[in-house]
Amino acid sequence: MNALGLKKRNGWQQVSTAESRTGTTKMTNRISRRDLARGACALLLTASGRPGRDAFAAGPDQGSQQKVPWHPDMFPEMIVKSWYQEDLAEGEVSSWQSGGVKPVAAVQPEPSLCPTKLGKDGVLFKKGTKQALTWPADNDAPYLHRWWLVIARCDSAANSDTNNVSVLCVNGAEGGSVHRQPRVCFRPSASTFVSQVDDGKIKSEEGKCSTDFGGWNVMVGYRRGFVMQVVVNGVGTAGQTIYALAPNRAKSESFMGDVNNPMRADVAIDCVIIGQSELDDSLIDMLMGWGMWRVGRQSALPSDHPYRQRPPSSEDANNKPARYAFDAAAWETWAAIGNERYGHRGEAAPPIRGYTTVFFDDFDSNTVVDDSKGAQASIWYAPTSLANVGVDAIAQRISGSPSSYVHDAASHTLALRLVHKDRWRTGAFSSVNNNGQGRCWGKGIFEIRARLPRIAAPRPGFFPAFWAYGKEHLFWRTRNRLETDFWEYDGLNGAYINISQHVHKPKLGYADPHIATGGVHRKIAGYQVDPSNGFPATIDIYDGEFHIWYAQIEDDYSYFVIDGLEVARVPTSPELAAKKYIMVDFAYDQNKGRAQPDPSQTYDMVIDYIRVRQTEADLARVPSGFSALPALSGRTSAGQSLTVVPNVIASQIECLWYRDGVPIVGETGTDYQLGSPDIGHKIRCHVRAVSVLDQPEAWSPVSETVG
Q1: Considering only 357-366, 383-392, 410-419, which range has the smallest mean pLDDT?
Q2: Cα–Cα distance between 307 and 313 in angstroms, integer?
Q3: So what's the pLDDT on residue 314?
Q4: Pairing state of beta strands 368-370 and 380-382?
Q5: Which tens digit of pLDDT belongs to each residue from 212-255?
Q6: Which 3 state secondary structure label does DSSP give 294?
Q7: Where in the sequence does UniProt note compositional bias of the Basic residues kind (predicted)?
Q8: Side-chain half-sphere of 100: how many Cα atoms within 13 Å?
């Protein structure tokens, strides 16, 4: 196992497929009849329009039934953009319309710069020209473009001294450091087909390709977890760490061909597909197998590739990753509970039994990092994926000056600070970065101890919140964004607590009955915490004192608590139970107060700790894909190492280590060397199988106390 959690076998590691889960959402196609016909076609065509020279060479198994050939467009929600050469007429190409959930036309208004469709031999971009097809910049590319399939050929043999023969560049017509989302090119001098992504540094992965202009090459590149990899003609690369990509603020166009420099060699493109979601290894194999059979090069696949002898056919569970399904009827039924949710408000919260702390940050140090630079084992990323999270204040980065992230080493607290510099600025952070990399939890207890400024009414429009988002919307832009507000307050009334559930409309429209096309919202609790509502005393959070809030989400009911007193209890809905990441912010909304803040003053939301607990019963369950819970081996004494045995077959895993629930920053390997900070504590490892269907995850049991 290397530092990235990757294992290779002849350049590629097979993984077992998980069983199909029940209740999988059936997707509704938005593609054309043409694309459906293409996907259902019983005969796989090569780029020349004929069966490949060794297509179906082995033939079907005796006695087997004819299966419908698999095609990427059979699962249209995964496809963001797709261009196929067979959709073009022969001759000059001035416009090439894509399919996908976010279709676009790649165009060239200047006739002399138009590439040429060569019969059924692809779209040719000629050497020595700036022939190119362009389309507008896509600011959502960091979220949407999770994988890409490119089939192309290059006259490398005749241009063996050249590099960077352009094929594709998303957001790169004007260069710059935030582009390549992704970029694909040939490197004839090394006989390689190259994929690049830019996370502040250009990350390149490349594989050996055909140097013969008659030989097509198939690339599947992808971002998954904290790793970017590429498979070229069936052979995978080792991969490398990649961080969050930045939005394309320069509005630099995308292109096929080359708009920046004359083409350094002839290049022809058969197809380009760009997709959303994180692919498991089975789907990567299917995409590669489909591509190689499409161009008749299946015999060039490695001998152990699952589709060397026959192409992928039909669908399986891996084509249907789990996604949130909105149920309008269930949503309305939930609302029928009415005021029953308040039957125990003001009473002592039910006792907490059978829970284990799986995450605890008491801010011994400042654990907030820049959301574009934080590594896999980082704890908090700022300023979150939402540009407007601060409302009328800018949520600034860690490097902002004066800082909005003020750590007090003596009290072990972190303050989110509203500070004025030209305009109001503030702090906000989440447990994932803006590309969805980080820590998430489903059910459990989500708890914070915090203090708001002591300030009398009338107050400015402070807008603090402890809340969560479902992770899915960062990977499926066609799906609803789930928001759970564990609590939020305004400056109008510091005693009025607000707890809400939101299902926001998707970033991209997509026709599916299980996607809410417009936002829907429900109030879990909204009232004053005071004696009139059954509380022993008024809790006004602008009293300058620490308070403890938590949400306890269990299988049947969810409870919301302040200072040990119940605020509300409601049936646990799928929205509440969804896997979620924590967000904390101290926003300023001038419409939510009755006074103006003083620019000469600073206002702090001081956080003492944040904790997540989960039930021991849930932690003891072995999830699909794991043969058993991860196991720890080794002696529990300082200077010795603990090793986790993942007990899951996966080419890519992510390991996170914890000391009594406190994340151990920087430790992501399968081995952890115990040191003096571990003495007197117990160690645990969290394992996520990133390359397996639905990315199952499990916890090891806790170790013995380190001596």
Answers
A1: 383-392
A2: 10
A3: 84
A4: parallel
A5: 999 999 999 999 999 999 999 999 999 999 998 888 767 789 99
A6: helix
A7: 1-10
A8: 23
Q: What is the rounded distance in angstroms from the CA atom of residue 143 to the CA atom of residue 164?
A: 26
Report whether 529 contacts 567 (CB < 8 A).
yes
Distances (CA, A) of 579 to 44, 444, 697: 40, 10, 12
Residue 247 has a pLDDT of 80
> Which candidate, 52, 100, 107, places its Cα nearest to that of 76?
100
411 CB burial (10 A radius; 0-12, 13-18, 19+): exposed
The residues pairing with 472 across neighbouring beta strands, listed in sequence order, are none
Q: What tens digit of pLDDT does each residue of 104-138 get?
A: 999 999 999 999 999 989 999 999 999 999 999 88
> Tokens at residue 423, please?
């305009």
Closest CA to 469 of 510, 502, 505: 502
The 3-state DSSP class for residue 183 equals strand
- The SS3 assignment for 207 reads strand
DSSP string, 582-649: EEEEEEE-GGG-SS---TT--EEEEEEEEEEEEEHHHHH---TTBSS--EEES--STT-EEEEE--B-
Q: Which residues of 615-642 are buried (b: 16+ CB within 10 A; e: fewer)?
A: beebbeeeeebbeebbebebebeeeeeb
- Tell me which range, 23-32, 40-49, 403-412, is most confidently predicted by mean pLDDT: 403-412
Q: Provide the terminal-to-terminal Cα distance of the chain, rounded to the nearest Å.
A: 28
3-class DSSP state of 654 = strand
User: In degrees rounded to 5, what are phi and psi of residue 136?
Assistant: -65, 160
Q: What is the per-residue DSSP string for 229-250?
A: EEEETTEE---EE--PPPP-TT
The sign of the CA dihedral 523, 528, 534, 538 is positive
Q: How many CB atoms lie within 10 A of CB 602?
A: 16
- Angstrom CA distances, 437 to 433, 600, 645, 690, stand at 5, 37, 23, 11
What pLDDT does residue 66 have?
Answer: 54
pLDDT level of residue 384 (50, 70, 90 thresholds): confident
491 in Cβ contact with 587 (< 8 Å): no
Question: Would you list the DSSP string of 53-116?
Answer: TTTTSS-PPTTPPP-PBP-GGGSGGGEEEEEEGGGS-SEE-SEEE-BSSS--EEE--SGGG--E
Would you say the C-alpha torsion 553, 554, 555, 559 has a positive or negative sign? negative
Find all residues with CB under 8 Å of 686, minimum gap 6, and list them: 358, 655, 656, 657, 658, 697, 698, 699, 700
- How open is the CA angle 600-605-608, to the nearest 5 degrees? 140
- Pairing between strand 671-673 and 267-275? unpaired
Phi, psi of 47 (to 5 degrees): -65, -20
Q: Which backbone phi and psi does 444 adopt, to 5 degrees?
A: 145, -170
SS3 readout for 334-395: HHCCHHHHHCCCCCECCCCCCEEEEEEECCCCCCEEECCCCCCCCCEEECCCCCCCCECCEE
CA distance 107 to 449: 55
DSSP H helical ranges for 484-602: 574-577
